């Protein structure tokens, strides 16, 4: 009966979000309460599990998400992403740009909201497309899709990555190392395969592109879509800032300087992870490599940079936007932890643990595939990468002890599945269609198909990693 009620709870969450358009936070709480009561936890036990699950995940990733949100908001305010893309276009030329752009977006900018990355990069992609030949817009659209969304689920400090790692208790330094291998490689291979398909006539300019002047797509005023819109439902995108009206900075900041608030924390976290793996015991290195401290250093650097280049009002607005976004991001992440805690109290781990474990004759690769399928199905139904990833991790976290698979590999498999086939039930889909100037058919190819392709490519890479580690 535990399996039945858990299935009903998860289906209820999916249907509430998808059919009745209930906010994911409310849907997850309803599902958690239903599961707790039907599993015999009682009213007190159910609410206690929900509260404790929320508190545990907040203790794990709360500060990381908060610092990351503010960091991304400040970096957006000084135009770091736009500067990088412009430099790449000048240095590499339009034909190499898709690969460079996908790599940069997946490896460097997961700290910035995916919708903000799209708003900034889409006009630049459209301007470069005519110089790339007949399928230029399609190639750039696929590169944006691969770079932005692959980085979101694999690379620290993307929210999808941080949330999955927190729920599965994977050290963020470990996730950083694996993500920097899986993420950019997945993005590059996806763009390469996408390019091969385009050469075989997969794209029809007349049917897949709209007739629109690129000037109409420039984000010169107004607001970008809110963080609730980034991947369909919840605002839990990358750990970054919210787009506001483009503002003039007081001083031009060199690109190398504007990237330091991201690069320095990543180097600190990587150094801490490497020294720990090497068996080096140093309290100083452990402190400097602590992810919370590292992201705080990045936040401090971004704050100083923004203070020196922006006016006081603009700086205050950037911080306010970050604070406002932090609340809903933390809430959805915490409630995802609550669902996992309730599942953990139901005894489901004893039921499913034997099914997933190697003792039951289920090979590691099959376990990876099952985890991938759970996350993929949730994403197809809900339309939100983050909710799918958090829910899948919450389902599987309680049975981690019975799985003959490293936690980091399971985390990668969940991220890979959650990436699968972003489609029309996601607001990001319609943002993509409008900003890139493609038809619904074109978006289904350059976004839905490309995310499915990236998901499958990453699944193969994760399977290879599982054999090596």
Structural account:
This protein is an all-alpha fold. It has one domain. 72% of the residues lie in helices and 0% in strands. It has helices spanning 2-18, 24-38, 42-77, 80-92, 97-107, 114-128, 136-154, 159-167, 172-199, 205-208, 255-277, 283-288, 291-309, 312-345, 348-356, 364-382, 385-396, 407-418, 427-436, 440-468. Helix 3 packs across helix 13, helix 6 packs parallel to helix 19 and helix 9 packs across helix 20. It holds the Pfam family GntP_permease. The chain crosses the membrane at residues 6-37, 57-79, 99-125, 137-155, 175-194, 255-274, 286-306, 327-344, 364-397, 409-432, 444-468. Keywords: Membrane, Transmembrane, Transmembrane helix.
From the structure above, extract its key features.
469 residues; mainly alpha; 20 helices; globular; Gluconate transporter; gluconate transmembrane transporter activity; Glcn_transporter
